[in-house]
Amino acid sequence: MGVGWHDGPVPETHHVDLCIIGSGSGNSIPDERFDDWRIALVDDGPHFGGTCLNVGCIPTKMYVHPADLARMPEHAAPLGVDLTLDQVHWDAIRDRIFGRIDPISAAGERYRAESPNIMLFRQHARFVSDKTLELADGTQITADRFVLAAGSRIRIPDVPGLAETPYETSDTVMRLAELPREMIIAGGGYVAAEFAHVFSAYGTKVTVVVRGDRLLRHEDDDISYRFTRLLGERVDLRLQHTLCSVRPTATEAGPGVSVEIAGPDGTRSCLTADVLLVATGRIPNGDLLDLDRTGVAVGENGYVEVDDYQRTTADGIFALGDVSSHCQLKHVANHEARVVQYNLLHPEAMMKADHRFIPHAVFSSPQVAAVGLTETEAMDRGLDYVVGLKPYADTAYGWAMGETGDHIVKLLADPQTAQLIGAHLIGPEASSLIQPLIQAMSFGLRADELARGQYWIHPAMAEVIENAVLALPLDHRSPGNPA
Ligand SMILES: Cc1cc2nc3c(=O)[nH]c(=O)nc-3n(C[C@H](O)[C@H](O)[C@H](O)COP(=O)(O)OP(=O)(O)OC[C@H]3O[C@@H](n4cnc5c(N)ncnc54)[C@H](O)[C@@H]3O)c2cc1C
Ligand SMILES: NC(=O)c1ccc[n+]([C@@H]2O[C@H](COP(=O)([O-])OP(=O)(O)OC[C@H]3O[C@@H](n4cnc5c(N)ncnc54)[C@H](O)[C@@H]3O)[C@@H](O)[C@H]2O)c1
Question: FAD/NAD(P)-binding domain: which residues (predicted)?
Fold first, then answer.
């Protein structure tokens, strides 16, 4: 049986047409067009269906919506409406979310297990030789084609004491038995921004420890500094602080954590809480697959290298999603899964993935959404660009909502071609409002056409997009159009 990494009886061997590693986005590949393919689907996760469904996009946003509701009294009071938040029922929120998600995951697993042409293996897999995969129980799978959809896992920082201290991650924090009274969040990215909103809205006292001078440092400066200031009004932000050490504590109230942090001048201080949430990024899972044994090259920071067709450096092996994409976003993994699916079915006429305009959104409060270049990136590239900026407060719907000027839409455009090159939003419904801007960039619509070539419903919130486009110093006259 060759180079096994297990002890035990002689294992089984299977040959299939296609082997998919990862039941997240990889699971969307087999449809009825693959009914005459023999397929092996391998996943080692505790829940079938990958990150987005079980511990990612879907449950987090199901936590965000009740958090937005819990903040309604704050939003309503300045408008003359007194609301009171009586209580947040953590167990009811949690059980609604997982009462919905867990059966979907289980049904998905059952469906695949019962599919006549699919063998489902719920084990860890790694390559032992060219196009030969070995599972934890020693089963070997050879395949004509492989799809690596193995995702990413949480990066745990090397902090003294952390390994000996109970802590939470995004994989675990959503299933806590009780709402924490106090929480320390380490990190200043997506996960920190979203959970700081969720838990503080539910009533947890949240402290966020961030290495840099702001959260969401990859956003445009006008957005990230604004977001940091606004979140700082609701939670205790320790900017420019590093984690020195962590240790478990026990008080009358129960077990907890003590975290020593150091500020920019080296001054040390101590934070305590009942829960520590580590939110310091994710690393791709390629390193756990022994990819060198099958000729798959791994590039910078451990991401599997792929070409425009999602092909790895090994013939017949494709990769998609977090294992190969620096973006680590579900809509990117979904797009790439569609590309891989097409290319498996059409090997003679493959299609390319489209990575030109990848948007993202942070579902915090306020929401943040962006696509394209930040102003700093445009400057660094030496591009000629113009800026259009509009506060929500300058639009009729902004007046209705009592907007004060904190929330903005900022656009960058090329003054020669009038093409948008970047869009950055912070404010209500940013994740939805950005869509016409993504559309304009994707289809090459000029900014002046976008503003004046269609009706914008008055006085809807989307007028802030229209007005931001009109604020770009371009010639917006376009005869014969609705406006
Ligand atoms: C808290 C959180 C919130 C998020 N929110 C959003 C959001 O709002 N919007 C958004 O676009 N993205 C969001 N994301 C990111 C998104 O979830 C991921 O980009 C996406 O799920 C990645 O999909 P994938 O198919 O590449 O990998 P996954 O869905 O992670 O699937 C990989 C699967 O492969 C299995 N696996 C890995 N290695 C092996 C192996 N060697 N053998 C067997 N099985 C293996 C894993 O167990 C896993 O089930 C969020 C992520 C997190 C953590
Ligand atoms: N709305 C969304 O689309 C969404 C939501 C959540 C997560 N995600 C995805 O999940 C990924 C993981 O999210 P995340 O917030 O964990 O990662 P992130 O990359 O967004 O942020 C990581 C943060 O941790 C900090 N950090 C890294 N190492 C550290 C260390 N040793 N000590 C202290 N701080 C450290 C970084 O400076 C950064 O602030 C994201 O990259 C994103 O793609 C997306």
Answer: 17-336
The model's pLDDT over 22-34, given as tens digits with 9 standing for 90+, comes to 999 999 999 999 9
Which ligand sits nearest to residue 327's alpha carbon?
Answer: 2
- Give the number of C-alpha atoms closer than 13 A to the C-alpha of residue 18, restricted to the C-beta side: 26
Q: What is the pLDDT of residues 364-376, one digit of tens each?
A: 999 999 999 999 9
Task: Provide the CATH topology of domain 162-280.
Answer: FAD/NAD(P)-binding domain (3.50.50)
Rounded mean pLDDT, 447-476: 96
| Residue 232 among known ligand-binding residues | no
Cβ partners under 8 Å of residue 36, min gap 6: 117
**375 appears as a binding residue in the annotation:** no
Tens of pLDDT, residue by residue over 374-396, are 999 999 999 999 999 999 999 99
As separate numbers, helices (DSSP H) first and strands (DSSP E) second, the chain gives 13, 21
Structure tokens at 73: 């009294």
* pLDDT of the residue at 481: 56
458 is annotated as an active-site residue: yes
User: Annotated binding residue at 131?
Assistant: no
Q: Whose CA is nearest to atom 24 of ligand 2?
A: 280
Tell me which of 51, 61, 278 to substitute to probe ligand 1's pocket, judged by most ligand atoms within 8 Å of the beta carbon. 51
CA of 127 to the centre of ligand 2 (A): 29
- Class of 13-153+283-345 in CATH: alpha beta
User: What CATH number was assigned to the domain covering residues 366-470?
Assistant: 3.30.390.30
Do 13-153+283-345 and 366-470 agree at the fold level? Answer: no
Q: pLDDT digits over 147-156, tens only?
A: 999 999 999 9
Q: Per the annotation, does 194 bind a ligand?
A: yes
The answer for residues whose C-beta is within 8 angstroms of residue 446's C-beta and 6 or more apart is 417, 418, 419, 440
| Domain definitions of the chain by residue range | 13-153+283-345, 162-280, 366-470
Task: Write down the ipTM of this complex.
Answer: 0.99
pLDDT band at 4 (very low <50, low <70, confident <90, very high): very low
Which residue's CA is the nearest one to ligand 2's atom 26?
280
Q: Is residue 187 within 6 Å of ligand 2 at its C-beta?
A: yes
- Which of 6, 331, 458, 476 is labelled catalytic? 458
d(CA 220, CA 238): 21
Would you state the pLDDT for residue 254?
85
Q: Whose CA is closest to atom 16 on ligand 2?
A: 281
